Amino acid sequence: MIRTFQQHNLRPTRILNGLWDFITDPDNKGVSEGWASQFPVGSKKSVVPSCWNNELGTYDYIGAAWYRTHFDTTREANIRLVFEGILHHADVYVDGQHIGYHFGGFTQFAMILPHLTKGKHELVIRVDNTVDWQTLPTDIADWHSYGGIIRSVELQELPDVYIDTMKIDYQLKDNVADVQLQISLSSLSHEDSSVEVSATTEGLSLSAAHVLVVAGQSTQLTLSGSLADIQRWDVGQPALYTFTVTAGEDDLIDRTGFRTVEVQGSDILLNGKKLYLQGVNRHEEHPEWGFAFPPKLMLKDLDILSDMGCNIVRGSHYPQSQFWIDLLDEHGMLLWSEIPMWGCFMSVETLASPIFRERGVHMLEEMISRDYHHPSIIFWGAHNEIDTRTEEALELTKAFVGKIRSMDTSRLVTYATMHPEQDIVLSYFDVIGINKYYGWYEGSVDGFGTMLQNYYLNAEKQGAGGKPVIMSEFGAAGIFGDAGWEPRLFSEDYQAEVVTRALKIFRDDPRIVGTLIWHFADIRVDVRSDRPYFRDRARSFNNKGLLSEYRKPKLAYRLVKEIYRSER
Ligand code: ADA
Q: Per the database record, which ranges form the Glycosyl hydrolases family 2 sugar binding domain (predicted)?
């Protein structure tokens, strides 16, 4: 299950999730020994999707592992395999042949097998969760080093001429939407074909076109039309429009919502109205499922966010499951979406690495093209906690922000800085996110006041004075169940005190347009003996959750709920 709705009525699709053969390859001999065609005897079973780090014996395994399943085709067919998320390196083999490689654990990719013969086929995937100083994330990340096929695998049968992509753009004038659909068709045929293309949505048929698709090539076309009396998508008012494109024997269905997002002075406007953002950072993680987060729990997390009075969630620190983003669309909850930039705060070498930059730009491209239509996404986050005092960070910012703006001008671009007082990249962004942990890593909560004054001075100096500011991370650790009379470090009381005092400071500052508490729920972190980082994480968890890892509310949750539900 990838989406909350069907994306195809005509194109046959099936999910390949289930029990797959599985074996780890710690000595990296699978390639030379030909495991792609001769899967080793003695393999175990693993459920796809899942993370191997939630299973006995592979709790902290980092390295290669091989997965195998089979699928049948009842006739010669063009097969498209869609992988929603594999952590982090994936080599895909079908019937022993290498058909492609993908890097990046949180973005979807697809591979096409034209004219695959009728019969039984073997799908083998070599998965490797090894990360280093040039990967996103790097090998220093404040979460567990999960590996595996973490999201669904889908098989689609394509006709010879198929719809490759569909991009919905619109301009709004009052309650009229001028819509353009850019459609890309591709041919797997040996002959030229003429296909009829049409599109519909609630209350509108976009004019049909006859298109010639040259054998083996792709062609683009745009269909446009105007939709009157539209309902706007808004926080808590999730009006959605479903677009169905049909081209010959193929179809593609996607959804969007109509809304405007802009910055005016120090404010963010949604549909022309001032927004005050109240939310949390959330990892898509659970101690039993890791990053293979199940849909049932997504619904529950969403209920909890609504109960707390949130109108936004930050998808920290990577593109989240499409099912989750669909749910946010359906519930009118906003999302900050970003790529997995973690661990670059100490090393500018990583920021300057061409491979790292290329990987980041590619991930931004994959994230934006996958999620372009979601009305819930209000911000694209370019990076998190890099050393934004340096020229290396400036150059990387230019590349990342340039990529984002070249693909999408309908959303705001932001990031999270840990150096607000000396940051030199402020002017590249629409909205500035500040991560600071007064009351935890540095000094007392009162430090926020001085830090903010210094930030405002720096912003003036950088020509970025007056930009909207979001407190994108702040918080303290509190171990679930540890309560007492005195606010000791790691107690629920201490955490609640830091978070509530910080919220008071931010809500009283008219230049701050929102708060994202670190974080929603506790997460597992990686404290293996060869890793010097995060040894201060009690229980091997990042305990700054307002909820425990099993979603039980701590004191801070109840107090934040009161604050988020009260007038500012
Ligand atoms: C950073 C980081 C988070 C988390 C947090 C913490 O701000 O962005 O991912 O690690 O610190 O708990 O220290």
A: 66-159
Q: What is the ipTM of this complex?
A: 0.99
Residue 77 tokens read as: 């067919």
Q: How close is the Cα of 498 to the center of ligand 1, in Å?
A: 16
Distance 317 CA to ligand 1 centre (A): 10
* Containing structural domain, residue 142: 18-151
DSSP letters for 177-242: EEEEEEEEEEE-SSS-EEEEEEEEETTEEEEEEEEEE-TT-EEEEEEEEEE-SPPPPBTTB---EE
* Neighbour-count burial of 156, counting CB atoms closer than 10 A to its CB (0-12 exposed, 13-18 middle, 19+ buried): buried
Per residue, what are the HEC states of 515-539?
EEECCCECEECCCCCCCCCCCCCHH
Q: What is the CATH number of the domain that holds 249?
A: 2.60.40.10
Contact 186, 218 (CB under 8 A): yes
Predicted local confidence at residue 297, as pLDDT: 97
Q: Is 439 domain-assigned? A: yes
- Does a structural domain hold residue 120? yes
Any ligand 1 atom below 6 A from CB of 544: yes
Cα 364 from Cα 356, distance rounded (Å): 12
What is the residue with the minimal CA distance to atom 9 of ligand 1?
142
Question: With a 6 A CB cut-off, is 164 part of the ligand 1 pocket?
Answer: no
Q: For ligand 1, is residue 53 a contact (CB within 6 Å)?
A: no
Question: What distance in angstroms lies between residue 481's CA and the mean position of ligand 1's atoms?
Answer: 22
The 10s digit of each residue's pLDDT in 387-397 is 999 999 999 99
Same domain, yes or no, for 62 and 192?
no
